[in-house]
Design goal:
This is Glycosyltransferase family 2 protein. Pfam families: Glycos_transf_2 (PF00535). It comes from Candidatus Methanodesulfokora washburnensis. GO terms for molecular function: glycosyltransferase activity. By secondary structure, this protein is α/β, with parallel strands linked by helices. It has 2 domains: 224 residues, Spore Coat Polysaccharide Biosynthesis Protein SpsA, Chain A; 62 residues, no CATH class. The chain is 37% helix and 17% strand. The longest helix has 21 residues.
Length: 314
Amino acid sequence: MVSADDVAVVIPVYNGVGIVDRCISALLRQSRVPGEIICVDDFSKDNTYEYIKRRFPNVTLVRNGFNMGASGSYAKGIILAVSKGYKLIWLLDQDDLPSRKALEELLLFPLVGKAILTPILVCPLLNSVYDMPDFSCGVFTWRRPDLNKPHEILLSNFSGMLLPDKLVDFVGVPSPKLRNEVADWEFSIRVRSRGWRIIRVPRSVVYHVGGKPRLGPRVYKRRYLRLQKMDLTRLVEVASSKLVLISNYSKERYFERGRNITFLLKSIEIPSCVKIFMLKWILGTLIKISLFESEKREKMRAYLSGLLSGIIMT
């Protein structure tokens, strides 16, 4: 097993006061504490940088001179971690809560060949697992794999990705051009196109709590803890949430989402089941804007403009 001292965690942070501290606290309570935590402040508009520096003086802080988006911030943090000699880089979002043994279980996994590892990613607000296409998916059918066994997947979120340092030489880093939306999917596709695999390790669990609740049912703590079967901890600070018909996506973010998804669909060779997954995601976004968003007309116009822009994006 690789020592946790050889692991650097990279967390992009934007307006993270009261959010990222939960993630950092969870990392410091890991059964295998990582060697270094690198927070990349993405030109926050609040005092996030000073807040982290004051509360967690041992965390390495990097500040962007302008807003690069999560993808550019991940890239910056990965390059820094590799330059410091870390063998493994663990990616997390600022609103992630890794379970106590999340890193340990990834380090214990008997890795063979060129591969990156990723945990089971759980959304406690919706009481569900983030499903990603894998090799059990057909073009028009969706069969969930056995989540109790390790399995190879076609796409992954950035949340919880464990990257070997040598991956950077073969694959590169996340694309700053895509900023936020679907940059993790583009990176996943690039990883696989260079002959690497993405393996999901079920004993490692990361909870993507979210900085602000969007549409979600009332979730009680006892129900949430039933979901957390493998590692009952007290890391979770979310006890309940109300049904909230809101979204915190801006018109600019919807434009970016539309542009990036059509860019991926037209420019990269991807399996048919992944294309269907992405097309369903486009439809789901259209429904979400129509039913749940404020400023529906403006945000719908921005999203449709983004879809068209992605066709000519190079």
